[in-house]
Amino acid sequence: MAQSVKALRVEVEIEGVLIGDDGARQVISWSYDKTLTAGEGADQVSRVFQDQVRALTSSSSDIDFGTVEDFEGNALGIAALKVLAIRNLSTTASELGLLDAATSDDAGILNGTNPLHSIGPGGLFLIVDPGAAGYAAGDSIGLRSNNPLNVYLLAAGDTGA
Question: Residue 105 has what pLDDT?
Fold first, then answer.
């Protein structure tokens, strides 16, 4: 039996205080909260993939959202990617690179010639597109590192039906 998604919530909160040379204060209070319910379409997800990649090395590890499997070994077939979160769990001076995989056709997430997003130790890469189409997920992404490190990845979307 394939997984059943009840809901997925993405919550980000940024708070801080800036103090100027003259002692003036500026408060930063910004939040994002989005709940995606079960289903196919806008503000919905029907597939969730999560994995902790251990000891990722300098070679690229490709992840194809169309063929990844859930925790029970069922193919997920994510075609419309709504959420992608990649967290570099390393605390050493390693850098995680998010790039197009060799098979990717640059649709949606990483456009351009040889795109690369670096995610430093303790860093987080997060994109959310709750619209019906999401990001075209027929592509693969690649993860690479200059040193062994641990990575947490979560991808959620639907079949695009």
Answer: 47
Sign of the Cα torsion 86, 7, 33, 135 reads: positive
Token pair 């993860």 is found at: 143
What does the pLDDT average to over 116-127? 84
106 pLDDT more than 80: no
In this prediction the pTM is 0.84
Please say whether the beta carbons of 118 and 124 come within 8 A.
no
Which tens digits make up the pLDDT trace of 44-60? 999 999 988 766 665 66
**CA 140 to CA 18: how far, in whole Å?**
40
Task: Report the b/e string of 96-129 with b at 16+ CB within 10 A.
Answer: bbbbbbeebeeebbbeeeeeeeebeeeeeeeebb
User: Under 8 Å CB-to-CB from 11, ≥6 apart: which residues?
Assistant: 31, 32, 33, 34
